[in-house]
């Protein structure tokens, strides 16, 4: 924006020619992007590894990606300037048209900068897969924005700021049509010369170039938000075989069949690509009701049991003392759909989009199907509209009956926001559905997904001592209150003593850390509460979220044929524990205090890792561990792609 302070003569020379307006937009984009980068750097300074190399990288790589983004951004303007006939372009009034166009593009750049700020504040990252998903579900996202932020004031501020930028430029832009005429042939040469640039950039530049540091914040600051949104959209699904380090399928499945073996399981056949095992337990099966509550964004660090001093989970902290409490469990991803995938399919995260959102995800082997085969009525109960994130379709086609907010009458809703009804109303719906099934003399498996612990963090007033719409801590405490209210009401039900309550998070509230895959940002709680059936205890062994399903079925003493990749932790020999954590591109495999990270471009890194910390220390390669990581992730991706999970 320093361009606004240039003297008229210098600015006129800089903008001289028909395509000067496009050059002006490039300058504005680079200037606004630079200021945005500086603001993000100041805001996140405590998390940035400050060094001369990192600071140079932030601004040099940042400038490069700003220019790359500018090459794409000015395409509409370049098309207009190329095709506009000289008889129109040369008119004096056409200067006003150019001013209007500059104003619109400037407002768009400013609006994007503000949107990036709110995205950074929430996720500590540039636009990514989450932003792409949000563009798909515009109703929820626009509603969330409207309920979370003072939109009218923000837009007013942007209009004023836009005017402060454009007004000093207006007299220069207005004079551009009076410049030397440019015939169509000449401007076609200019445009075609320019058009080569975005095409060349499309095939030669990707978002991995700025991943030069071991500090995630440095890498994110080095990028450009608009470009990252474009890149995330193009890479919505990633082929494991194309982008990641591989081994032969024969070796991968041979290794997985060996690693997945547990004492209670025997393979049903010798087919090299079939991991189906017969899980056999002695004694009677316990056909208890199961209520699985997956809580939105419930980080382990919120609970006093894990060191919090905020006292925002008083009920869960109390319940943990009367539950089978798993203290070392890790989510597989950073999105609700990734958590739902892990809890229902019990498979490692595959690169790109969650299976919940992918095509051809019908008739998969799921936790709901196992319960259905045992005579249960299986239900997925959600407080929002289940079309969001493809939840309705996924669960309805994988062994569950879907029940969402449409089943609630208006007078049953105390409060709602764009994401869903208040959690207390969700649990009213869940209680009704459980009653209905039990009264029909059938056991029930109900997977209940909460929504209240999500921006805009609103809930009914008067339930807790933190006012609504004040932040994450209030939303966490309200969800804790709602779960407590549900459990207390359930204790009065005739089916309470024959029910197992499972409380787990879908993912953590934040996944940002100094490393790309900070293990502490995947740590989630798991409580299994059934006072008449399961004695209180602590399970402190390391577990993956995909182990919950097999472990739960083991607690019920179920025998069944399994295609799950997860372990029953009580059957697994000590020392074999492993964890899978991921973003949409980076795949982490943790075993024995080491983490293998698989990334696109067939990149593989080995780190020493300390549970409870976000610090990763590069270490020497571990061939055996690398092969394990590749085998798990490659075979899971292959199994889904080739229908082996069905």
TrEMBL record:
Location of the active site: 336
InterPro entries the UniProt entry points to: Alkaline_phosphatase_core_sf, LtaS-like, OpgB/LTA_synthase_biosynth, Sulfatase_N
Positions contributing to substrate binding: 454
Name this polypeptide is given: Phosphoglycerol transferase MdoB
Binding locations of Mn(2+): 296, 336, 506-507
Membrane spanning stretches: 21-43, 55-83, 95-120, 151-169, 189-205
Sulfatase N-terminal domain boundaries: 289-557
UniProt membrane topology term: Multi-pass membrane protein
Keyword Membrane: yes
Keyword entries, A-Z: Cell membrane, Manganese, Membrane, Metal-binding, Transferase, Transmembrane, Transmembrane helix
Location in the cell: Cell membrane
One Pfam family per UniProt: Sulfatase
Gene Ontology terms, MF aspect: metal ion binding; transferase activity
Any single Gene Ontology cellular-component annotation: plasma membrane
Signal peptide: none
Entry-linked SUPFAM superfamilies: Alkaline phosphatase-like
Principal localisation: membrane
Protein species of origin: Chryseolinea serpens
Highest taxon of source: Bacteria
């Amino acid at each position: 924006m320093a361009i606004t302070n240039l003297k008229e003569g210098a600015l006129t020379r800089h903008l001289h020619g028909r395509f000067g307006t496009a050059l002006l937009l490039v300058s504005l984009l680079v200037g606004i992007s630079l200021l945005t980068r500086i603001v993000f750097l100041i805001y996140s300074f405590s998390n940035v590894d400050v060094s001369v190399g990192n600071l140079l990288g932030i601004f040099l790589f940042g400038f490069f990606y700003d220019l790359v983004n500018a090459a794409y951004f000015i395409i509409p303007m370049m098309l207009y300037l190329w095709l506009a006939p000289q008889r129109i372009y040369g008119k004096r009034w056409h200067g006003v048209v150019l001013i209007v166009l500059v104003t619109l593009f400037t407002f768009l750049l400013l609006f994007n900068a503000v949107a990036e700020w709110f995205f950074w504040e929430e996720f500590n990252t540039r636009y990514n897969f989450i932003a792409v998903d949000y563009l798909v579900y515009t109703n929820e996202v626009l509603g969330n924005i409207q309920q979370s932020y003072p939109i009218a004031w923000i837009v007013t501020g942007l209009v004023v700021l836009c005017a402060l930028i454009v007004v000093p430029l207006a007299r220069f832009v207005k004079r551009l049509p009076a410049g030397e005429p440019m015939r169509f042939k000449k401007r076609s040469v200019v445009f075609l010369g320019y058009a080569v640039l975005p095409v060349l950039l499309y095939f030669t530049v990707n978002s991995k170039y700025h991943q030069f540091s071991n500090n995630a914040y440095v890498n994110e600051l080095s990028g450009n938000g608009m470009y990252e949104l474009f890149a995330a959209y193009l890479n919505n699904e990633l082929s494991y075989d194309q982008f990641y380090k591989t081994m032969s399928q024969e070796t991968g499945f041979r290794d997985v069949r060996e690693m997945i073996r547990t004492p209670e399981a025997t393979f049903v056949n010798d087919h090299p690509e079939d991991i189906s095992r017969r899980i056999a337990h002695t004694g009677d099966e316990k056909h208890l009701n199961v209520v699985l509550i997956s809580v939105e964004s419930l980080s382990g660090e919120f609970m006093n049991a894990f060191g919090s001093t905020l006292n925002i989970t008083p009920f869960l902290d109390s319940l943990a003392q009367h539950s089978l409490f798993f203290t070392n469990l890790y989510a597989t991803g950073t999105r609700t759909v990734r958590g739902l995938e892990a809890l229902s399919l019990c498979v490692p995260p595959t690169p790109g989009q969650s299976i919940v959102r992918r095509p051809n995800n019908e008739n998969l082997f799921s936790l709901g199907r196992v319960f259905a085969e045992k005579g249960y009525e299986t239900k997925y109960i959600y407080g929002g509209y289940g079309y969001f994130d493809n939840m309705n379709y996924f669960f309805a086609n994988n062994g569950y009956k879907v029940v969402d907010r449409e089943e609630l009458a208006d007078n049953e809703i105390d409060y709602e926001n764009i994401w869903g009804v208040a959690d207390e109303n969700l649990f009213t719906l869940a209680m009704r559905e459980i009653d209905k099934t039990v009264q029909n003399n059938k056991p029930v498996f109900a997977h209940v997904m909460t929504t209240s612990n999500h921006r805009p963090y609103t809930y009914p007033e008067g339930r807790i001592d933190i006012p609504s719409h004040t932040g994450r801590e209030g939303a966490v405490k309200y969800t804790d209150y709602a779960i407590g209210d549900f459990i207390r009401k359930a204790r009065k039900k005739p089916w309470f003593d024959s029910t197992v309550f499972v409380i787990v998070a879908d993912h953590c509230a934040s996944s940002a850390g100094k490393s790309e895959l900070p293990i502490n940002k995947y740590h989630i709680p798991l409580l299994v509460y059934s006072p008449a059936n399961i004695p209180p205890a602590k399970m402190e062994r390391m577990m993956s979220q995909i182990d919950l399903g097999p472990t739960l079925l083991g607690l019920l003493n179920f025998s069944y044929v399994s295609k799950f990749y997860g372990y029953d932790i009580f059957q697994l020999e000590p020392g074999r524990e492993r964890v899978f954590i991921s973003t949409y591109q980076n795949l982490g495999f943790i075993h024995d205090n080491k983490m293998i990270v698989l990334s696109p471009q067939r990149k593989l890194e080995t780190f020493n890792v300390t549970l409870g910390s976000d610090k990763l220390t590069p270490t020497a390669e571990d061939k055996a561990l690398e092969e394990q990581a590749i085998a798990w992730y490659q075979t899971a991706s292959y199994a889904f792609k080739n229908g082996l999970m069905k």
